[in-house]
Specification:
The chain starts with a strand and ends with a helix. The longest helix is centred in the middle third of the chain and has 20 residues, at about 220-240. The strands form 4 sheets. Strands 2-6-7-10-1-11-12-13-14 form a 9-stranded mixed sheet. It is α+β, with helices and mostly antiparallel strands and about 475 residues long. The chain folds into 3 domains: about 5-290, no CATH class; about 300-410, no CATH class; about 420-475, Orthogonal Bundle (Arc Repressor Mutant, subunit A). The protein has helices spanning about 55-65, 165-180, 220-240, 285-295, 300-310, 315-320, 325-340, 340-360, 370-380, 385-400, 405-410, 420-430, 435-440, 445-460, 465-475; strands at about 5-15, 70, 75, 80, 90-95, 100-110, 115-125, 130-135, 140-145, 150-155, 195-205, 215, 250-255, 260-265, 275, 280-285. A hairpin with a 4-residue loop joins strand 13 and strand 14. Helix 6 (about 315-320) packs across helix 8 and helix 14 (about 445-460) packs across helix 15. Bound molecules: adenosine-5'-triphosphate and magnesium ion (2 copies). One magnesium ion binds near residues 12, 196 and 214. It catalyses: L-glutamyl-tRNA(Gln) + L-glutamine + ATP + H2O = L-glutaminyl-tRNA(Gln) + L-glutamate + ADP + phosphate + H(+); L-aspartyl-tRNA(Asn) + L-glutamine + ATP + H2O = L-asparaginyl-tRNA(Asn) + L-glutamate + ADP + phosphate + 2 H(+). This is Aspartyl/glutamyl-tRNA(Asn/Gln) amidotransferase subunit B. Keywords: ATP-binding, Ligase, Nucleotide-binding, Protein biosynthesis.
């Protein structure tokens, strides 16, 4: 019988920052340009080239550090991390080891079991490396230095995570925060957010931690979940068979659903870190910190607290609506126009997110006018269109931002609210369906639903279902 094991996970998350230019030179920071077109002597490591720190990088890092509730380091410095690899032409990476810009933070995540606090050990700034493309067919490797010198922050958590569910909730929360700040688009697939999973296992109840491995090449939440399950199992098997876990870096192969060893893990001393003599220390005073704080948008945690007080919507809705700033902005703007927050929330959570998924978009891409959604909600409430028609009209609001009032007018979609006209049609339906009439009169309430359906069919869906229902009841009583 094997002992129960607990999984212990700490994450290193690299995030590419959205800036006009790279971290230490004036080359463009652009994704997807043709290879080696955004390069210069600095980001290709030519001897004698001198790096100049991009102020925007520090400002983004400050904003993120503050949003993660970190202490800001008043004098922050850059260090050289030395290693040889073809994607790194300087043979060192300019990073921060001793005095990273932010330390001792924490964020709250929400999992099925409730809220959890995950501590942030530190966050530092660094430059990205180039990209190697391996062509196995040709037996060649190509290198693209466009990514060399793209600004990154690395956010290092404490080993506080215990499951794949928590890891994904944590990454989602980080992504939400960073996107709210406009500091990065945080796309795992495109590599603008990259998570390395450090994982160890220990018998339940054991206080000390086991030896960890570090896994790389995780490009989706699914890959992360599978890699965690696989690595947990691999380590438990090792321990159960009397072996030990080796501290190493492993590469996850999502197609084969397995990981393999890349290299045994270097310790900091192997990199021979030392202060970079070319980049002066950065002094961050209170005035600067305060200015960044003042410019910070309202973040998700604050929004959640405010929504609870201001809007009569369930906590579940509030969590989904605040996941992206786009949805939250739409919700607030539409609600302030029509004063029906729960209805607005339903349209956003159900139809909007359904269409986002169907069209292969992201919530950030949604771009219709709040006024149009508010107008649609009013049209339904006034009984001018029914629910089915409203959904159809909404698709056109979503895709083309049409004015629902004009669209309904143009396409003749208004509900038939004329009692006499409805009665006329209802009478025909009653005459044609004696069996259902008899069923209803015999006590089968369901039969009325069928008759309402038949009447709506004749009306091509444009009847007012409430009125049709009432008219049929009266006719059959
Ligand atoms: N025993 C352990 N089990 C699981 N995670 C651990 C354990 N010990 C440390 N960790 C986590 O491993 C991560 C270590 O990241 P850190 O950046 O400090 O070092 P590194 O991986 O050695 O350095 P590098 O940046 O060069 O990859 C942290 O997220 C930490 O919480
Ligand atoms: Mg690491
Ligand atoms: Mg690290």
């Amino acid at each position: 019988m094997s002992k129960a094991y607990e999984t212990v996970i700490g994450l290193e998350v690299h995030v590419e920052l959205q800036t006009k230019t790279k971290i230490f030179c004036s080359c463009k920071n652009d994704f997807g340009a043709s290879a080696n077109t955004h390069t210069c002597p600095v980001c290709t490591g030519m001897p004698g080239a001198l790096p100049v720190l991009n102020r925007q990088v520090v400002e983004h890092a400050l904003a993120i550090g503050l949003a993660l509730n970190c202490d800001i380091t008043p004098v922050t410095k850059f260090d050289r991390k030395n290693y040889f690899y073809p994607d790194n032409p300087q043979n060192y990476q300019i990073s921060q080891l001793y005095l990273p810009i932010a330390r001792n933070g924490q964020i709250q995540i929400q999992v099925d079991a409730g809220p959890r606090i995950i501590r942030i050990h530190e966050m530092h700034m660094e430059e990205d490396a180039g990209k190697l493309l391996h062509d196995e067919w040709d037996d060649t490797s190509l290198v693209d230095y466009n990514r060399s010198g793209v600004p990154l922050v690395e956010i290092v958590s404490e080993p506080d995570l215990r499951s794949a569910e928590e890891v994904i909730a944590y990454l989602n929360e980080l992504r939400t925060i960073i996107r709210y700040l406009g500091a990065s688009d945080c796309k795992l697939q495109e590599g603008s957010m990259r998570a390395d999973v450090n994982l160890s296992v220990r018998p339940v109840g054991e206080a000390s931690m086991g030896t960890r491995t570090e896994m790389k090449n995780l490009n989706s939440f699914k890959a992360i979940s599978r890699a965690i399950a696989g690595e947990r199992e691999r380590q438990i098997e090792l321990l159960e068979s009397g072996n030990t876990v080796i501290q190493e870096t492993r590469r996850w192969d999502d197609n084969k659903e397995t990981s393999y060893s890349m290299r045994s893990k270097e310790d900091a001393q192997d990199y021979r870190y030392f202060p970079d003599p070319d980049v002066p220390p950065v002094h961050i005073d209170q005035v600067w910190v305060q200015r960044i704080k003042d410019n910070q948008p309202e973040l998700r945690a604050e929004k959640l607290r405010r929504y609870k007080k201001e809007f009569d919507i369930p906590e579940y809705d509030a969590r989904i609506l605040t996941e992206t700033k786009r949805m939250a902005d739409l919700f607030e703007a539409t609600s302030s126009l029509c004063h029906k927050p729960k209805k607005v929330s339903n349209w956003l959570m159900v139809e909007t997110l359904r269409l986002v998924k169907e069209r292969g978009l992201e919530a950030e891409d949604v771009n219709f006018s709040p006024a149009h959604l508010a107008e649609l909600i009013d049209l339904v409430d006034q009984g001018l269109i029914n629910g089915t028609v409203a959904k159809e009209v909404f698709e056109h609001i979503f895709d083309e931002d049409v004015s629902p009032r004009e669209y309904v007018e143009e396409k003749g979609l208004k509900s038939v609210n004329d009692t006499a006209a409805l009665e006329e049609i209802a009478k025909e339906v009653v005459a044609k369906n004696p069996k259902s009439v008899a069923d209803y009169q015999g006590g089968k309430e369901k039969a009325l639903g069928f008759l309402v359906g038949q009447t709506m069919k004749v009306l091509k869906g444009q009847g007012n279902p409430g009125m049709v229902n009432e008219i049929l009841r009266k006719l059959l009583s």
